[in-house]
Design goal:
Shape: globular
CATH class: Mainly Alpha
Strand order of the largest sheet: 1-2
Distance between the termini: 15 Å
Largest sheet: 2 strands, parallel
Order of helices and strands: HHHHEHHHHEEE
Bound molecules: zinc ion
Length: about 180
């Protein structure tokens, strides 16, 4: 199995899809948020829930993808196209005008640290950060091999007896065991 195929199995990329934005699928983002919560101190978790108006991390884990439907300008905030052949990030090239997941995660973390930020602004910033940490850990949200982060490739997976071909936009329909 090639590196790209492995990456596709780990999580196809739909961040450029006009209709879908669920690279991990909803469950994947919720699992990332659950793991984050389990690794936070009780005090930090309590503070995060207070910022979120009582909601849990997993309850808001997909908010940024839902928000993107009516705020298309936020689409590029969910990924960064680092050429697959590069060994390190070049922000000027890979994140033009700071419109990428790396820059926006940094931005929203700075909002959370700002003592003068309004509660609603902090709540929105935390929802973006919770989601973007999930996006940052999706291989195809972070690389590009001249294929729009994997969107131009098709995923082949084997069912019981025959291979089934899925375009990357269908990755969220893959069985959880495949992800
Ligand atoms: Zn996303």
């Amino acid at each position: 199995m090639s590196k790209t195929q492995v990456a596709l199995f780990l999580g196809g990329d739909t961040h450029r899809s006009p209709t879908l934005g669920f690279g991990w699928g909803r469950e994947g983002h919720e699992v990332v948020a659950l793991i984050a919560g389990q690794n936070m101190s009780p005090a930090a978790l309590k503070r995060a829930r207070a910022i979120l108006g009582g909601a849990s991390l997993e309850q808001v884990a997909n908010w940024a993808d839902e928000y993107q439907h009516d705020h298309r300008e936020t689409g590029p905030w969910h990924y960064i196209d680092i050429p697959l052949s590069d060994s390190k990030i070049d922000m000027a090239h890979d994140c033009p005008n700071r419109q990428c997941v790396t820059a926006h995660t940094e931005h929203f973390l700075s909002v959370l640290k700002d003592p003068n930020a309004a509660p609603a602004t902090k709540a929105e910033a935390l929802k973006f950060v919770i989601h973007f940490v999930g996006d940052l850990h999706q291989p195809l949200h972070d690389e590009d091999d001249g294929d729009k982060g994997g969107n131009d490739r098709h995923l082949a997976r084997c069912s019981a007896w025959r291979p089934t071909f899925y375009p990357p936009s269908k990755d969220s329909e893959a069985p959880p065991a495949m992800l």
